[in-house]
Specification:
By secondary structure, the protein is α/β, with parallel strands linked by helices. The chain has a single domain, classed as 3-Layer(aba) Sandwich (Rossmann fold). Helix content is about 55%, strand content about 10%. The strands form 3 sheets. It has a 5-stranded parallel sheet with strand order 6-5-7-8-9, with helices on both faces. Helix 7 packs across helix 17 and helix 13 packs parallel to helix 15. It starts with a helix and ends with a helix.
Length: about 425
Amino acid sequence: MVKIFIKRFLIIFFYVIFCTYSLEFLTYLFLKKEKNFAEKSFDQIKKEIFTKNKNFDQRSDYQAFYDENIKNNLQPSFKLSQNNISINDHQNKISNFLINKIESGHKIPFRGPINSLSLGSNEAGIRKIIYNDHLGFKNFNSNYNKKIDIIIVGDSFAEGLPFSNDHTVSGFINKKKIFNSLNFGFSGAGPLGSLGVIREYVSIFTPKNTYYLYYEGNDLLDLFNEKKTFLVKYLEGNYSQNLYTSKKEIETFLDEYNKLFFEILPIKINQEKNNTKKITLKEKKIFVEKLKDFLELQSLKEIFLDYIFSLNNEKNDYLLFEKTIKAMKKDISKWDGDFTIIYLPSFNRYNKNFSLGDILKKRKILKIIENNNIQSIDMDNIFTENNMDDNNLFNLGLYGHYVKEGYELIANTIIRDINTN
């Protein structure tokens, strides 16, 4: 009897093992990542791409700013990042500067510089000069001379990194000369930061159409960090810093920031040189790594653990997200404006090809938007319809921001949305 039990147990055991590894093999074969950063790091892959393309800007960020500042009289970019104001890092002078300003009751702008040129990143291999308007956002001042039909809010995707003014979502809209659009996006913005921009600036111009670009890659994480900062005050219906009428205070703030930036610039350049030396193109034993991942059921674990993590992740504060977008809608309704949320897919969604966690989060977010009678546009579906649902949607096929064609498609989608409503 015992022998029969052991025999049956072994049969079942080996059957389960066989099925599990068969599923792992099929998952790896058909759902493998386009870019596997376990085989080569992001920095290694990027360095290889830049090394092969001699026309790409090979300089580090701070060194490039130092060089270009001499030619173009640039000012450093300022973006209000919750990472700089939620963690008191005594070694970080910028962080300390911001925290001290907040604690002493000063007004904190969202973006800068004002009426000055700044330098874009070389995410796409080439750096562009950015023009910043009289409010510190990425617009030409001439855009304010006409009736404002559309305002875009959101994070770096709304701002249009890494491109110049003409190749942002607002820039592409303005090129069509059908509607006049302003870009009030800023890097590092989460939902609360975007609510702040609506309260401080969008309410001044009362456009017929306001579009909030929600990026699934980090907006919930940004929201989790933002709620630990003064930005949470924007959930109070009457809270405002009155930034639009505080030009002198903002100029003083940015002057102090610029002085601090140029003070630490030589230190940052040296740090970049040291960090660059640490990036080597050492090849891993790829076959061994792949075999190890297979035996550890890495592909299956990523799918199911990602799903479980999404269910229980405290950083996905859906209730706060709902509260924030309701506040956005309420503010915009004061001038009878139309409010639409555009759902932007992440690099992770297309790199993995399939993620239970991403599917779950997307359904939850779109359901919350629908339940609050807010219009939405799912760019994931539109990118798929236009055969842009892969890594080529992102610069150099790497984690970062959309290529110009991606921003142009969002712009065209907005124009079509307005014309059909």
